[in-house]
Specification:
It is a single chain. The protein is α/β, with parallel strands linked by helices. The chain has two domains: 195 residues, Glycogen Phosphorylase B (Rossmann fold, 3-Layer(aba) Sandwich); 177 residues, 3-Layer(aba) Sandwich (Rossmann fold). It contains 14 helices and 14 strands. Strands 3-4-2-1-5-6-7-8 form an eight-stranded mixed beta sheet, sandwiched between helices.
């Protein structure tokens, strides 16, 4: 049984992150002889809904509850629903695809079943870089809860995550990255570059799009204009105003194209048209978007933070840059502009590195192996 928070009712509307990772893993698991039931808790529904994901996987969407705080719903509502569905499905193992306060659901719900958790986000690390006091305090609270209630069986996405939790009493752990589906692997490596950059994800201060825009301004002024496709939405109207003001003041409007959130079916062709992905985040664990774009044969240029250096081999299949030194990104963009030979070589290496590491069937096979180890 897999437990998830707020899994979209329309899977086509998944907007990356944990939900994309879960959906991709399920597609991999659908190829194996394993029965999986996903339980998702959602605020927007008032009664349970059942969806058949594949022949061997189903999803049950449950109302989260009416308390104003998620943590109260998890403790006082969701934990008893977990118990009910465990009784119905009788799983061999419970897989938490979320941590933090969601782990309150185990207090009354697990009935001594073995369970494990995948560490997706690292709440305390995110709290350190967030400016808003409310979000910062929430991140610290979630991080504290998770460290207190951390399961003894863990799937880490990266060694970076493992190092953060290595002082905890963990009996079994493994490192398995997020899964990527066939659609990205099926994209051919471009034979020629047209200097098109891609930014994907939530647009907030942590994702640091202003760093990318500042560097874009420099290369545009050097007569090396890149075009940037931005897939994602803003979380903060004040930050949105700041970004658009920067674009207007620096004459970047012709070069920056905002697509908003688009369905998964529309993401793949936009990725296919790009030459490079830029990830300028201040904090990351192991970004899904990097795995997807490497699988699609894209040059990844990413900030040297969190688990990213485990994904990108500088100068071999992409580049690592220092977000405190804009010139580090400018130099890479300057070098790759109209450089078809280098872009193609880096793209082919990125794709070949991604095949065994990120393909959803490979990730599912390694996950099942860990399930068997934990279940002994």
């Amino acid at each position: 049984m897999m437990l998830v928070i707020h899994f979209p009712l329309d899977i086509e509307q998944i907007q990356g992150g944990v939900h994309s990772a879960v959906s991709n893993l399920l597609k991999g698991l659908s190829k194996f002889n394993i029965q999986v039931r996903v339980i998702s808790f959602n605020k927007e529904i008032s009664e349970e809904r059942h969806v058949q994901f594949s022949e061997n996987i189903d999803i049950i969407y449950c109302p989260e509850g009416s308390y104003p705080l998620h943590s109260l719903n998890y403790l006082l509502k969701c934990s008893f629903k977990v118990k009910k569905h465990i009784r119905k499905f009788n799983p061999d193992l419970i897989h938490y695809e979320a941590g933090d306060a969601f782990l309150f659901t185990k207090l009354f719900g697990l009935k001594k079943k073995k369970y494990l958790q995948t560490i997706h986000g690292i709440a305390i690390a995110e709290g350190k870089i967030n400016r808003k006091l409310k979000v910062k305090m929430s991140s610290y609270f979630n991080g504290l809860v998770e460290k207190m209630m951390l399961p003894k069986n863990i799937i880490h996405l990266s060694n970076y995550s493992h190092q953060i939790y290595k002082d905890k009493k963990i009996e079994n752990y493994t490192i398995i990255p997020n899964a990527v589906v066939d659609a990205y692997f099926n994209l051919p490596v471009k034979t020629a570059t047209d200097n098109r950059l891609l930014y994907m994800g939530v647009i907030d201060r942590n994702k640091n799009i202003l760093f990318l825009l500042q560097c874009l301004k420099v290369v545009v002024d050097r007569k090396k204009p890149y075009h940037v496709d931005v897939l994602g939405g803003f979380k903060d109207e004040a930050f949105k105003d700041e970004v658009f003001r920067f674009i207007k003041d620096n004459g970047l409007a012709p070069y920056v194209h905002f697509h908003g959130w688009v369905p998964q079916s529309a993401v793949v062709p936009i990725v296919g048209a790009a030459d490079m992905l830029v990830v300028s985040s201040k904090q990351e664990s192991l970004p899904m978007v990097i795995a997807e774009c490497m699988s699609a044969g894209k040059v990844v240029i990413a900030s040297k933070v969190g688990g990213i250096p485990e994904m990108v081999n500088h100068g071999v299949n992409g580049y690592l840059v220092d977000i405190n030194q804009p010139e580090s990104l400018v130099e890479v963009l300057d070098d790759l502009y109209n450089n078809q030979v280098k872009v193609k070589a880096l793209s082919e290496k990125a794709k070949s590195d991604a095949v065994n590491k990120y393909h959803c069937e490979s990730v599912a096979e390694r996950t099942i192996a860990f399930y068997k180890e934990v279940s002994k």
